[in-house]
Write a structure and sequence with these properties.
- The protein is α+β, with helices and mostly antiparallel strands and 68 residues long.
- The chain contains one helix and three strands.
- The protein has a three-stranded antiparallel sheet with strand order 1-3-2.
- The protein is elongated.
Length: 68
């Protein structure tokens, strides 16, 4: 196994469907311009309440990718 160097970025995804969808949205968008993503860590979860119900999720991620 070769040695790797990783860089991390912070992303915030949002969704009206749920936390997992917010994560998937952030990763899918980042995948359009960031290569070699390897892992993610959820570092913060927030939500918006409307009329006594969860209306919107926001999930902040730390994403690691391998440098070329």
């Amino acid at each position: 196994m070769s040695d790797h160097v990783y860089k991390t970025i912070e992303l915030t995804g949002s969704s009206t469907s749920g936390m997992e969808d917010a994560v998937a949205t952030a990763i899918a968008k980042a995948n359009e311009s960031v290569r070699n993503m390897q892992w993610f860590e959820v570092i913060e979860t927030r939500g918006h309440i409307r009329d006594g119900r969860v209306a919107h999720w926001q999930v902040t991620l730390k994403v690691g990718f391998t440098l070329e």
